UniProtKB/TrEMBL annotation:
It catalyses: ATP + protein L-histidine = ADP + protein N-phospho-L-histidine. Residues 304-522 form the Histidine kinase domain. Its EC number is 2.7.13.3. This is histidine kinase. Pfam families: HAMP (PF00672), HATPase_c (PF02518), HisKA (PF00512), Response_reg (PF00072). The chain crosses the membrane at residues 16-37. CDD domains: HAMP, HATPase_EvgS-ArcB-TorS-like, HisKA, REC_hyHK_CKI1_RcsC-like. The keyword Membrane applies. Keywords: Kinase, Membrane, Phosphoprotein, Transferase, Transmembrane, Transmembrane helix, Two-component regulatory system. It is an enzyme of class 2 (transferase). InterPro entries: CheY-like_superfamily, HAMP_dom, HATPase_C_sf, HATPase_dom, His_kinase_dom, HisK_dim/P_dom, HisK_dim/P_sf, Sig_transdc_His_kin-like_C. GO terms for cellular component: membrane.
Amino acid sequence: MGIRRFWKYLSVAKKLYIVIGVMALLIALELFTLYFAMNSLSSVRAFVAGESMWSKGQKDAVITLHKYARTRDPNFYTIFQENVRVPLGDSKARNALEQVPPDTAKAKEGLLEGKVHPDDIPGVISLVLRFHNFKHVKKALEIWREGDQMTQELIVMGKNLHTLIQRNAPESEIFKALNSVDDLNDRLTILEASFSYTLGEGSRWLENMLMVTLIFAVLIVEGTGLFLTISFSRNLSKGLSELNNAAHEVGEGRFDVHVPVRSGDELGQLAESINLMAHHLSSSIGERQQAEQASQLKSLFLANMSHEIRTPLAAIIGFSDLLKESHLDESERLQYVNIIHRTGEHLTRIINDILDLSKVEAGHLEMQSHPVNLNSLLEDLHILMVARVGDKPVHVEFNRRGIVPDMIRTDPLRLRQILTNIIGNAIKFTEQGYVRMTYEISGNNLLFTIKDTGVGISPSQRSNLFQAFSQIDNSVSRKYEGTGLGLVLSRRLAQMMGGDVVLEESEPGKGCTFSVKIALDIPKIHTVKVAPAPPKEVHLGKQLSSTSILLVDDVEDNRLLIQRMLAKRGANLTLATNGQEGLTKALEKEFDIILMDIQMPVMDGYTATRKLRQAGYSKPIIALTAHAMKDDRDRCLEAGCTDYLTKPVQVEALIQTILNYSMETI
C-alpha cells in the first residue's frame, strides 16, 4: 500500500527515473550475488587447499617415521616433528575460531603454520565464522576436530617409537609400533576423504543456491519492468478518459464534479486543477451560508452574554441606588449589601467560565496536578452543594461504592469545577426529591455518577446539550438562568484530565443521570507522617496596626476600597497613582509591603517592579491586578513580584497574604 501511494504522487519523469533506478539496483544486486558467490567458492577452494596441506603433512610424518625406524637416523625424527607442525597449526587455528569471541589473530597465525597461502587465510576465516552453523561446514569442522585428535595420537606414537629406537628395543616391538602408526594412518585417510566429500557437497549446494538466486533476480528485473510498463500505460489511459469526462461535465454547468486524483504527475495536477476550478465555481454559495451561520452564532453569543452580564449588573446598580436612600434601616441596608455581594460573585463566575472556555479552546489551559485528599475535597463540596439547595425539599447525598483511595493525583481546582457544574445543574433543575452522587473506581478511571429527580432532558434536546450557550429552555420566558457554558466547559476539562462527561440516561419529568470520568492516578505516599506546622494566629483587628503598606493603583475607586479595607484593620497606607510615583515613594521610604497594580499610565507595574528589584529593594511586592490568566501570574513573578492576587479583591485572602509576608519580614 505504501509503494502504491509513493508511485501515485510521482511525476512522469520521476517514474522513469524510478524504473531505471530499480533496474540498476537489481543489476547491482546480481553483481553483488556474483561477487558473493565467487568469494564463497574461493574460500571453499582455500579450505580444500588447506586440507590438502594438512593431509600432506600427516602423510609425510608417517613416511618419516618409517624411514626413522629403518635407518635409526635421529634426523628423520626431527623431520617428523616438523611435518606434524602443519596439522598442529591447523588445530591451533580451529581452536582460536571456536573461542567466544573468536581470536582471528591467533587463527591467522595457526593457518600460516598450516602452510595456508596468506591471501587465502581471510577467506578461510570468513567461511568458518560466517557459515559455522551451516550443516556442511559444521560437519567438516567436526571431522577436522576428530582429525586433530588423531594427530595427537600420531605424535604420541612417534614419541613412543623414538623411545624404542633410543633404547635399542627389539625389532618386534618397533614393527608393532609401526603397525599402530599404519592403522592410524588408514583411519586418517578415511577421515580426510570424508572431509573432502563434505566440502564438495557444500560447494555444490552453494553453487545451486547461487544459481537459483541469480535466476530469481533476473525474473524480478524482467517482471518489475513489465509491471511498471503496464501500470503506467493503464493509469495514463484511465486518467485521460476521466479528465475528458470531467471537462464535459463542467462545460455543462455541473460544478459538483470531482475527478479522482490517481497520481501526483502531470495528469494528477491537471485533475486537481479541474477539481479546484469546480470547487471555486460552487463555493461562493457555501461561503455565503457559512458567513450567515457565523453571524447567527455571533449574535447568539452577544445576546446571551448581554443578558447574563446585564442581569447581575442591573441588580448591583439598582441596589446600590437603594443604598443611597437615607431612610433605610440597618436590616434593609444589610440585605441590599448581601444581594450586591452575591450578585457580584455570580458575575465573576460568569466571566471566569468564559475565560476558562476560551483558554480551553485556545489550548492555553494547563492542568496543575498534585496529590489531593479526595475525601476532604468531596466533604467541602457536599457542604457547598447542600447550601445551594436553599429551601427546596431536595436531599443531596454523596456515596462511595467499593474501595476508593483517599489520596489521588489530579487538579483539585478543575475537578471541583467539573463536579460543581454538574451537581449544581442537578440541584438547579430539581424542585424536589434528591440529587445523588456515587463515586467508584472503574478500570483505570475514577467515575462519578450524578443522578437527580429533576425536569429531565428530552431526546430532541440531547444533541445540543454539550454546545456552548445551549440550555434546556432557550425561550425568552425560560425559568432557569445560566450561560449554558457549564456542561461544555466541564466536558472539555474532563477530557483534558483523561476522561469525559456523558449523559447516561434521562427522561423528561423524571430526572437525569450524568457520568464524570477522569484518569485515576494514585500518588506514592510515604508512610512517615510529618506533624503539621502550627497555624499562624491572625487577629485581623490588631495585626496590621504596625504594617506600613504602599498601595500603587491608578483607579481612585480601587484605592478607596482597599484603603478602607486595610485601614479598618489598623494598616498605615501610602497611596500612589501610577508606577513612576510608586517607584519614587518606595525608594524614598521603606515599606513593609507594596501592593502593585499592573496596568497603569506613565509606568506599568511590571516596569516599576523590575526597577525596584534592580535598585536593591528586597521587601515583598504583591501584584494586585485584574489580569487573571496564568500567563499574567507568570509575568508578574518573572518581573520580581513576591506573590499575585486578582481583582475583584477578596478581603480575607488579601489580609491573610499581607499578614503572612509581614510576619516573615519581622
